[in-house]
Write a structure and sequence with these properties.
The chain is an alpha/beta fold. The protein has one domain: Rossmann fold, CATH 3.40.50. The chain has 9 helices and 7 strands; from the N terminus they run βαβαβαβααβαβαααβ. Helix 1 runs parallel beside helix 2 and helix 1 crosses helix 9. The longest helix is centred in the middle third of the chain and has 26 residues. The radius of gyration is 18 Å and the shape is globular. This is 2-(R)-hydroxypropyl-CoM dehydrogenase.
């Protein structure tokens, strides 16, 4: 299959797109999959420009128009400013998140708790709220892939698709990570409940989450000596015994955005090399 196989069409938003991790990989993957307009946001302004340059260097046959909008998704003022610039939206992948420090609950201060949740949960929720408002204005687009009839294409249609990045730790616990795991469990639970409210006709908006395992991103590899020790057990527990790649999460996100996953909603797709089964 060509890397430029068209699987999505229209307008997409990716948060957390300024770091060389899941957000950037997802932005690239959506561009390769045929998106026409791409909004990317991150607190890292230079990183957004780097993401934009990478996409521009791919020489895609139909490159997307890219709008890079730097800002902090934990800020309601920024959220209002960001969505005032987006008039229509077909897909959203909410990747922005932080890891926090390894500490048990009794050693966590309120300030750290609020900071982590303001990004991982509250910030994501503010984005989802605005994304839903935009998608509800769309017409239902019939599925553009292979079907046996026009009626089947209509049944598989959608107004939009939202993908939230959770974590394998939304499903299982981890020592000294209670507030992080709780924030990701909240993302997964939010996704499930929103899917009940918005997937049914006439809304036809699908919402899903991805639960990545240990992925090779700046959050996990900035300080190789310290981080490899911190994550070695998690990597070894997974049957595949390796870190995942951002592109592996990005491919899953594109699938969940596309009509190829038209009967999938409210799911937490685990992409973790088998960690949670062990």
């Amino acid at each position: 299959m060509s890397p430029f196989h068209k699987r999505v069409d229209g307008v997409a938003l990716v948060t957390g797109a300024g770091s060389p991790g899941i957000g950037r990989a997802t932005s690239v993957a959506l561009s390769c999959a045929g998106i026409s307009t791409l909004y990317i946001t991150d607190i890292n302004e230079k990183g957004l420009e780097d993401t934009k340059s990478i996409i521009g260097s791919l020489n895609l046959p139909s490159p997307p128009t890219i709008h890079a909008i730097p800002g902090d998704i934990s800020s309601p003022d920024f959220i209002a400013a960001l969505f005032s610039k987006i008039s229509t939206l077909d897909y959203a992948v909410n990747c922005a998140g932080v890891l926090g420090q390894d500490k048990p609950t009794a050693e966590i201060g309120l300030e750290e708790f609020d900071w982590l949740n303001s990004i991982n949960y509250r910030g994501l929720w503010m984005c989802v709220k605005e994304e839903l408002k935009l998608m509800l204005k769309n017409d239902v687009k019939p599925y553009q892939g292979f079907t046996l009839s026009e009626g089947e294409a209509r049944v598989r249609g959608q107004r939009g698709s939202i993908v939230n990045i959770a974590s394998q730790l939304a499903i299982v616990g981890k020592t000294q990570a209670a507030i992080y795991t709780a924030s990701k469990a909240a993302v997964m639970s939010l996704t499930r409940s929103d899917a009940i409210d918005y997937s049914k006709p006439p809304n036809c908006i699908r919402l899903n989450s991805i639960c990545p395992g240990v992925i090779a991103t700046p959050m996990t590899t900035t300080n190789p000596g310290e981080v490899s020790e911190r994550l070695r057990d998690a990597i070894n527990i997974a049957p595949m015994e390796r870190m995942g790649l951002p592109s592996e999460i990005a491919d899953t996100a594109v699938w969940l955005c596309s009509g190829e996953s038209s009967f999938v909603t409210g799911s937490g797709v685990v992409v973790d090399g088998g960690y949670v089964i062990n």
